[in-house]
């Protein structure tokens, strides 16, 4: 199926023609021209059956004895195929908010995920005649595509490189858009935008995963602290030796490095011990 353009005439022109035919029929019947009067009445009735109104951002698909004749997209008052069955299709932009789905990511962890899909109908013939209910088709295919894409990535990357659902939501949404467009082209629907609206670990593992994230953050912070502490100690020792404040042998240098590292890396403030000499 593919959308076709059906022939139309301005409805007000058709209304004028119909009034003229009614006048001709009346005059013919009064003058005794029965055949002309009957034909005029039949044509006028046919025109009456051809009137239709199309609202803005709406398509009207026409079928005549089971055959698709075409669609009207332009809004207004029209005369078209008489005695045809007319089906309306909205061309407005619409949103579909999926329910919160529980899926397993690529690592097998249960994840709750939801998305919003912005779409519109671009082919009225496909939307009406290729699928039973295009709105229901959009809903089911959106949730199916969301499950498929979510199962290809981990929720988060604790080590290594690559995409994750939490860290690359923009890229995941773009892939969902492409995947969904492939599925909905048969229904004459264009996917304009997709966005993740909800992403979280499932309740049964949320606590454990939070502890894992916290542990990962603590390890990363400790690595930065140790790296900075080593750099600061190297600078301190080098400056003391270069400016000749004191002469340090290897044993004293090791003690000073140990004390500096402990003071910098420790979570608590250092408590200095002052040597005031012996008291007798």
From TrEMBL:
InterPro entries, alphabetized: Band_7, Band_7/SPFH_dom_sf
Domain Band: 49-213
Record key words, sorted: Membrane, Transmembrane, Transmembrane helix
SMART domains: PHB
Pfam families: Band_7
Transmembrane segments: 7-27, 33-54
Domain of life: Bacteria
Protein name: Band 7 domain-containing protein
Gene source species: Paenibacillus crassostreae
